[in-house]
Amino acid sequence: MRASIAAPLSLLLAPLTACALAAQQPTPTPMPTRGPLPQIVTVGTGEVRVTPDRATINIAVETRAPTAAAAGAENARRQQATLDALRKAGIAKEQISTVDYNVSPDYQYDREGNKPPTVIGYVVRNTVRAEVRKLDDLGRVIDAALGGGANTIGAVEFTSSNIEAARQQALANAVANARQQAESMAKAGGGTLGQLLELNSQPYSRPPIPMVEMAAVRAMSKDVAETPINPGEFVVSASVTGRWEFK
């Protein structure tokens, strides 16, 4: 009888002992969570001055006649003469493209406003864009176009064959400027600048330099000197935003 009673008692004591040992284990202390490091954000800018070495110009022939057909025919004759003059000036065919061709009524208006406008003819305007790859030739090209029959020169834009290299240098200058600002802020704040977290550049747009339109009368005389052109310089700029850890 004693043997049969002892066995169940040992089975009951085993779970109780395990529970007691578990109760004696210390509860782990949770580790404090560390918040994000403070950060420094700066906007840097960089510039590079560039001397243009090429240009594009819009050259237009505008004609008027009593009928649209007559105005168109006269325009075609003068435009062909203008294109021939451009080619003689060294502008290849692939450097010339049509950008606009427009036919519109030519109205005469009543000065007193008592009568509706009257159509007295038609105006035809044909505009081509020419790319001048040698800037020293620009004045001669303008004079050749005007002498060939064009009567409006406009939308002159200067650019450079080194524009992409200038843009890359402007970006590098902007990054250096952003970092210099961040380092100054970190020092003033009593800390040091940590690793770079993010760097973004702003969209780039090429800066054109426009010229005012020129009248056809300028180059109609053989005695007039070549049209002077002074492109000066233009600035290629870049802007970046940088974000660093502040330690």
Class from secondary-structure proportions: alpha+beta
Helix/strand order, N-terminal first: HEEHEEHEHEEE
Q: Biggest sheet: strands, sense, closure? A: 5 strands, antiparallel
CATH C-level class of the largest domain: Alpha Beta
Q: In which order are the strands of the major sheet placed?
A: 3-4-2-5-7
Strand proportion: 25-35%
Tally the helices: 4
Q: Which regions have little confidence, pLDDT < 50, spanning 5+ residues?
A: 1-14, 215-222
Number of strands: 8
Count of the domains:
2
Identify the CATH architecture of the largest domain.
2-Layer Sandwich
User: CA-to-CA gap between the ends?
Assistant: 77 Å
Radius of gyration: 39 Å
